[in-house]
From TrEMBL:
SUPFAM superfamilies listed in its UniProt record: Thioesterase/thiol ester dehydrase-isomerase
One annotated GO molecular function: fatty acyl-CoA hydrolase activity
InterPro entries (UniProt xref): 4-hydroxybenzoyl-CoA_TE, HotDog_dom_sf
Top-rank lineage group of the source organism: Bacteria
Protein name (database record): (3S)-malyl-CoA thioesterase
Length: 167
């Protein structure tokens, strides 16, 4: 189920038994699957649902994704993912996704930050958004202003400010 009310886009699902690992909680890869479904909901919200992707010959590709695992969740747990647009240009959109258990949105389960690229599938090559799609992206950005993106903009290291070590 998808909502297109503020903040941004909301996607709902449930942790399926086949997604659970040997530790009894959601397997790490399936967090990304849920986020992938949530970005599909975003595509629907901006006018790039399956029918429009086919008619326009356009799609979105993920260029980069960062994932933060905050709390474990178990089989049968309903999940809610909020999708916000942090920034965009003519061809790309940077989104922030937060996953919560159920509709309770105080305790975060996971977060992801992603950069998506609008693509003409005939190439495939990067392509500017059509005006109507860009307007919807901009509107979602406006709805997302002021929303706290707690895990956005992070890099990975063992310690804050640690320099990379090469071998």
């Amino acid at each position: 189920m998808t909502e297109t009310t503020a903040p941004g886009v909301v996607y709902r699902d449930q942790v399926r038994a086949e997604w659970v690992d040997y530790n009894g909680h959601l397997r790490d890869a399936f967090y990304m699957l849920i986020y992938s479904f949530a970005t599909d909901a975003l595509l629907d919200a901006i006018g790039l649902d399956a029918a429009q992707r086919e008619a326009r010959g356009r799609s979105m590709y993920t260029l980069e994704a960062h994932l933060n695992y905050v709390r474990e969740i178990k089989a049968g747990t309903p999940v809610c993912v909020e999708v916000s647009v942090l920034e965009h240009d003519a061809k790309r959109v940077r989104v922030y996704l937060e996953m919560f258990a159920g509709d309770e949105r105080e305790t975060i389960v996971s977060a992801s930050e992603q950069v998506l690229l609008h693509v003409d599938r005939a190439g495939p090559r990067a392509a500017p958004f059509d005006a109507d799609v860009l307007a919807r992206v901009a509107a979602l950005r406006g709805e997302s202003v002021g929303r706290v993106a707690r895990y956005a903009g992070r890099s990975i290291s063992l310690a804050p400010g640690a320099a990379a070590v090469s071998s």
